[in-house]
């Protein structure tokens, strides 16, 4: 089929072919109709019998010796955007150009480009909205991460003091724990001692009761006023 504007031709801007040292670059361009894609290589004086073309489902290659040179050759290999029918493709040589006529395997489909573009791997971001997709979680790793965060999170003020007391209590023997419990509970939280020999004989609710902070007074919460 001869291409025509009514068939949806999509001519492309000329592009460079192989750059030959000491020679002007060989230009090429492509355009399409509803049934065919045409690739034109602007090379003069190419011999028909010296031009070799190979067509595959989605590949095409063409090569020929450059006129006036015994050792330079033009080579073009294309990974096509869409499939073609190799049996219906052909290569035509004239005095001014070499033209590849590629029969579309999917007639009527307009190619966005001549060559296949490399696909970039895409990993979608995790959705911010709730999803029903089931995800496996490594709970042991999560627990390890939490413990590490807690160790790195340094408490301050009362929290730091309570943490220190807890660590002392956890590492203490039974006698030390008795001393801590009795001194703290009977003194209303004003005394904390780890010396059981001292605490055992002390009366923090009576004669050994510490002086309350300024502005405060002792009251027995067990007695109703």
UniProtKB/TrEMBL annotation:
It comes from the Eukaryota. Residues 204-225 have a biased composition (Basic and acidic residues). Transmembrane segments: none annotated. GO terms for molecular function: protein-folding chaperone binding. SUPFAM superfamilies: HSP20-like chaperones. Residues 128-223 form the SGS domain. Residues 23-115 form the CS domain. Pfam families: CS (PF04969), SGS (PF05002). Residues 180-225 are annotated as: Disordered. Residues 182-196 have a biased composition (Polar residues). This is SGS domain-containing protein.
């Amino acid at each position: 089929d001869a291409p025509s504007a009514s068939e949806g031709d999509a001519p492309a801007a000329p592009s460079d072919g192989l750059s030959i040292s000491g020679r002007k670059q060989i230009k090429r361009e492509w355009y399409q109709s509803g049934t065919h894609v045409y690739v034109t290589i602007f090379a003069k004086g190419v011999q028909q019998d010296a031009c070799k073309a190979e067509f595959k489902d989605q590949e095409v290659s063409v090569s020929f010796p450059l006129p006036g040179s015994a050792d330079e050759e033009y080579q073009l290999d294309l990974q096509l955007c869409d499939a073609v029918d190799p049996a219906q493709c052909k290569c035509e040589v004239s005095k001014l150009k070499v033209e590849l006529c590629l029969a579309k395997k999917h007639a009527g489909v307009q190619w966005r480009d001549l060559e296949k573009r490399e696909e970039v791997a895409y990993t979608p971001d995790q959705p911010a909205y709730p999803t029903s997709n089931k995800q496996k979680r490594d709970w042991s790793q999560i627990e390890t991460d939490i413990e590490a965060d807690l160790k790195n999170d340094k408490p301050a003020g009362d929290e730091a003091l309570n943490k220190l007391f807890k660590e002392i209590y956890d590492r203490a023997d039974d006698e030390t724990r008795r001393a801590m419990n009795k001194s703290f509970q009977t003194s209303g939280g004003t005394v904390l001692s780890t010396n059981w020999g001292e605490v055992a004989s002390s009366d923090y609710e009576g004669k050994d009761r510490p002086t309350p902070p300024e502005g405060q007074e002792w009251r027995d919460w067990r007695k109703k006023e």
